[in-house]
UniProtKB/TrEMBL annotation:
Protein name per UniProt: Cytochrome P450, putative
Signal peptide annotation: none
GO MF terms held by the record: heme binding; iron ion binding; monooxygenase activity; oxidoreductase activity, acting on paired donors, with incorporation or reduction of molecular oxygen
Keyword Oxidoreductase: yes
Family: Belongs to the cytochrome P450 family.
GO cellular component: endoplasmic reticulum membrane
Record's keyword annotation contains Endoplasmic reticulum: yes
Amino acid sequence: EVDTFMFAGHDTTAMAIAWNCYLIALHPEVQKKVQEELDMVLGEHKTEDISTENLKDLKYLECVVKESQRLCPSVPVIGRTVTKPFTLGNYVLPEGTSVEIFIYGLHRDPEVFPDPEVFDPDRFLLENCASRHPFAFIPFSAGSRNCIGKYDR
C-alpha cells in the first residue's frame, strides 16, 4: 500500500508537473497565452493563492494540462484482468486474462488526435473535443479502477 501511495500519489504528480513545465517552456506562444489568461483571471490578486473558483476560469490552462497529459501520461500503460469472456476482433479473451491498456498509444491515435505528435492545447477546447469518445483520452484510467486522486468538476 505504501508503494502504491508513493507511486500513484507523488511520482505521477511530480512527472505531470515536470512535463507541463517542459512543454510550456518549449512553446513560448502557449506560455504567453497561459500568462495572459492568468493575468486576466487573477487580476491584481496574482500574489495570492489560486482559489477553486479561479481554477474554474482557467480554461486554456486546463487545455494545456490535458494536452500535456495526452502526450506524456504519468502512467503510460495500465493493467487489467478480464472479469468475463470478452471478444476482441476474432479473439476471445477468457475470464482471468491479464490485459494491458497502452495509454501512450491510445492518446496518439491520428484518427482521434490529428498530428498526434504535435503539442496543441486547442484540441481540448470544448468545441474541439465535444464529439470525441469519452475513453479516447484517459490519463487517469477509466471505470471502476479509475485513479482515486482524479479531480473532476
